[in-house]
Amino acid sequence: MLRLTRVGWISLLCLAWGVPSFSQTRARLRTSDTELVLEAGTAAPRLISLAFPGQPKWENHASESLIASVDISGKLVPVHWSFNPEASQMSEQRAVFVYESASPHLRLTWEWQTRQDYGPVEHQIRIENLDPGEIWIPMQDSLAFNWQVDPQANLEHLFIEKGANRPSSIGTHQIPLNDGYQWTGTSSTYGDLSDNEPREIIPWSLVQGSPDGSKVGTQTGWYAGIEFSGRTRISIGREKDSLHVAVGLNPDPAPFRTRLAPGGVFETPVVFLGGFRDGADGAGNVLRRWVRAVLGNPETWRNPNYPLVVNNSWGGGMAVNEEIALRMIRDSAELGVDMFHVDAGWFRDVGDWYPNPQKFPHGLAAIADDAHKHGLKFGLWVDWTQAGLSTRPGALNARDPKVRDWMVTDLPAGWKPEPFKGQTIDLGVPEAKLWAQHEVERIVTDYHLDMLEHDGYLVAHGCDRSDHPHAAPDPLNKCIYKSWGAYWVDSSNSTDVSYHAVRAYYDIYSRLRREHPGLLFEICNDGGRMVDFGSAAHGDYFSITDTYDPLSNRRAFYDTSHVLPAAMLESYVEKWPTPRIENFRYMLRSGMMGWLTIMTDTNGWSPEQHAEARKEIDLYKKELRSLIRDARMYHVSPRPDSVHWDGIQYWDPDRRRGVVYAFRGTIEGEKTHSYALEGLEPSGRYVLKFYDHSAPDRTVTGQDLMTRGLKVALPLPNSSELIFIEGAGH
Ligand SMILES: [Zn+2]
Q1: What pLDDT, in 10s, does the model give residues 358-405?
Q2: Interval between CA 226 and ligand 1 midpoint (Å)
Q3: 210-255 pLDDT tens trace
Q4: Cβ atoms of residues 531 and 163 within 8 Å
Q5: Which residues surround ligand 1, an ion (CB under 5 A)?
Q6: Nearest-5° angle of CA 211, CA 214, CA 216?
Q7: How many beta carbons lie within 10 A of that of residue 315, not counting itself?
Q8: Is 159 helix (H, G, I), strand (E, B) or coil?
Q9: What is the pTM of this model?
Q10: Is 702 helix (H, G, I), strand (E, B) or coil?
């Protein structure tokens, strides 16, 4: 085996590709955290190894498993891939290995790319049909590999649940990955449908440990994630000396198949693979920064007021009207929030996304303009993929003959939408996509929006149609049922349905972004059911759970913040019993670690609460927001349980400034708690400022804060403190 430096390698490559007998072509891609060696074999490519620089290598013993046959006119035709060096490309940031099949005529592109000089490396496979006729291809994973591991090696698996409807009692799973381990985590846009089903994961997994069983000084390993919102899965299994991993679309229910028209291209979901050190927070601090730089919207992050503070109308439910909205705008301005957000209840009907004239006699643009006059941005909730029964012009009527076929199945005669939820249309149908594209464009323009929130189930859950671009359902093995007032279909085409619908959704939002720079997108899908890296690349912030009490907010934040930038993580703060002002602050701060949206009737607050909220919002804007945006973050307590203490730490090493959010639970005996802080310099000196004056300010060493810990004392259950940390030299 030739070991080459990167520069040496490129020059040899040019030489080597002119020599047909040189059958093994290698490439090396590297960031400060991830070193990958790739090989183009004659019949298949292979990820050779991954390492965090200077740490033991993870070596892969399996070539990429490329599709071995296709279906042409109902006949199974074998595919023989061969490497095409002339078509392949290689640079310091990119390795593209091209494989071709002569008959059927197909081209497969196996691509790896570094998009920052730190963090993970992205990977995608594209299969192009160069035949004159239609071809059906089976499941192609985004990435599959088989690490060689020492049977004695201690490995640990970390994965994160979506906050979905309500965060579960675990959320962040950190479990031993022993011999015999078999695990599959799935993600779709539906989250947990019942308590009996396994929870959906944020499509990401981390494995910590050393493959050769050595005891490494720092906690290193690798992680992988999926940049796609359709039905995906990650599976991990360990057997003796082998750790096999598959990442990509969810192949179940099998058999997956997808159509390739002549000239058509199938693209596997982009996945990323990275090395890390310093445990889960070490991985998170690199990954969050990478997500911001690579997937985030530069226009959004350029706004120094991102993440925004929002006042949302759902505190009063569907009752919102012009009078309530104008009153909320005045109060929002008085409280100092950045945006007024009208939630469900403003429209004529589901699918009929025009302001209800009884509630908004002067329309919605007048409300937006009033918000703007008060210095606020204006956001709007729209369930824009949902059809109802309104027959007014412009409405999406499920019974309209032009629209009927966009539904995933024929709706029975008695079907009716719910108050704010209808039947999802299949966005994978070109006419449906076009309608939705025009509709969201109209809504954004006509109602003067600064933010568009989508909700409901945006992506069709399966589809019974055989005349849509996706594969037809299996007639002998399909299930049609009603859930949340809509019809859903389960069959072997479900993953392909989601593949087409999600790509259409991404197209619509990419176009909206181009045409409305600065427009914000909130990703809400019945709460936190669409929390994934594909959404992160197409939206600006996530509703991370659909349950809004302090514990649920802190749990969902604790989990999700392992992998996504805190600024993108929205907590809705709803009404909660706050007999004392300390409880009120605790409630607010439980939603102030990321993006803060207040969802309670603020006019119902007492003058004292009002003044307190105003002060906290001011603090958020002046002190906390910049840390939430830019600082490193550490999970310095176990996951919140509302009984014991919990907390998180932000620390910005450049500004030498940070904060610890401390939350005290209900247990009577625990009046004090010590947080072992992270990321500080042991010899550095730090000034601690207790914002609520629960203790006098003091100066301590980094060593002290990281070993003995930051001690906080709070006399009352369900109370909190913010401790600011300032570097004070050495
Ligand atoms: Zn369909």
Answers
A1: 999 999 999 999 999 999 999 999 999 999 999 999 999 999 999 999
A2: 23
A3: 999 887 667 999 999 999 999 999 999 999 999 999 999 999 999 9
A4: yes
A5: 426, 463, 465, 468
A6: 100
A7: 23
A8: strand
A9: 0.96
A10: helix
